[in-house]
Amino acid sequence: MTHFTIAVSEFAFGNLFANLRRNFTYSRTDPVVDFDSYRVGCNIAARLEGGDIFLTDDGWVEIENLDLVFDALVLDLWFRLPEWCVGGFCLVPDPWRGCLVRSPQVCFGGDWVNIPIDLSHLVCEVNRIRARLDPVYFVDPDRDPDWTDLEAEDNGMPNRWQIYLGVGTVSVDPLDVPASTREATVSAVHDIIFNMLSWLPDWLQALIWAEISPPLDVLRQALNFVDEFEDFVQQDLLQQDLNVFEPIGTALSRHFAGIYPLLEIEDPYPILPPDETHIPVKIPLRNLSATVNTDEMVILADIE
Question: What's the whole-model pTM score?
Answer without folding.
Answer: 0.85
